[in-house]
Inverse folding.
């Protein structure tokens, strides 16, 4: 017998130019007969599906197309096998719109990190870029414009920015292949952060080599094998890809870290991934996961679901959808 329950996990002090993140809604699924535990956590603004929609299919007896619920399909897939008790990958540090850039860079440099992703907005990007010019040139800076500019404005900004960013992400407000073609001759490396909208053009964008980097959020792509295939296409076309985390418990984080390790092996190098959301989550949700000297480390740790009871918002309910029950048996 399988049951599910709703949880609301807190997010601390994370803002971008459009949103102030406070909570992430998730569903946990467990078996009463084993230690089986799944986390489903669609990300608002990136996934089309919501927690409410997923809950509706859990208690419905109707058939459904799992591909329309990629965050659920991702949770159900598990092809990464290892006999190691710990695993680590390199990570950048995320600095939100409302945070002190210089203070954070200084603090995390002292902890062994040298790559930072800076969130900016229409109102402050010029000021922040000037501020960044005073830091050590050996520090890698990724900048995220949060998709606020038209194509014309994006071209003008890219032509006038005088800073050597590792890459520039999210400058276009409409991330279509048509618009990326207009930015192809930019002197800067561009990065696309995959979401349900720009995913429609991603294959063509990769084949035409319109970008230098792609940030992969696995729960947007569904089955783990889709992440693997996309990463292979990026490598084939000389585009760097990396795993970008969202707001999850240790269950979701561990899945993402394992996929990040797969990408490291694929490219035969230590990629700097994007696990910066770690710093904005309650650490009791991330047992066994830590930041250390430029790496995010995952050490095997038993999950005690009782430790998450503080964030539980509904009682455990029985899953009745027979199609889902069969999928859970094979998960």
């Amino acid at each position: 017998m399988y049951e599910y329950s709703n949880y609301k996990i807190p997010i601390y002090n994370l803002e971008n130019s459009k949103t102030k993140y406070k909570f992430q809604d998730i569903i946990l699924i467990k078996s009463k007969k084993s230690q089986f535990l799944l986390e489903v956590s669609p990300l608002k603004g990136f996934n089309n599906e919501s927690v409410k929609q997923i809950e509706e299919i859990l208690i419905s007896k109707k058939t459904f197309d799992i591909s329309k619920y990629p965050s659920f399909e991702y949770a159900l897939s598990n092809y990464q096998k290892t006999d190691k008790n710990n695993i680590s990958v390199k990570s950048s540090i995320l600095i939100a719109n409302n945070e002190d850039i210089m203070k954070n860079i200084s603090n995390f440099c002292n902890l062994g990190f040298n790559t930072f992703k800076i969130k900016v907005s229409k109102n402050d990007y010029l000021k922040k870029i000037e501020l960044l010019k005073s830091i050590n040139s050996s520090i890698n800076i990724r900048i995220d414009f949060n998709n606020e500019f038209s194509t014309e404005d994006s071209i003008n900004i890219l032509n006038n920015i005088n800073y050597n960013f590792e890459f520039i992400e999210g400058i276009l407000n409409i991330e279509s292949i048509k618009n990326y073609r207009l930015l192809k001759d930019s002197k800067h490396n561009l990065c696309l952060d995959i979401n349900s909208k720009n995913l429609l053009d991603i294959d063509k964008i990769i084949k035409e080599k319109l970008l230098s980097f792609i940030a992969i959020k696995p729960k947007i792509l569904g089955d783990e094998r889709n992440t693997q295939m996309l990463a292979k296409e990026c490598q084939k076309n000389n585009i760097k890809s990396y795993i970008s985390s969202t707001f999850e418990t240790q269950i979701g984080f561990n899945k993402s870290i394992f996929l990040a390790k797969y990408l490291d092996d694929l490219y035969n190098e230590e990629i700097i991934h994007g696990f910066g959301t770690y710093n904005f989550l309650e650490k009791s949700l991330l047992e066994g996961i830590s930041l250390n000297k430029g790496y995010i480390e995952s050490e095997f740790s038993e999950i005690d679901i009782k430790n998450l009871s503080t964030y539980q918002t509904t009682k455990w309910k029985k899953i009745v959808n027979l199609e889902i029950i069969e999928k859970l048996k094979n998960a």
Notes: DSSP finds eleven helices and 15 strands in the chain.
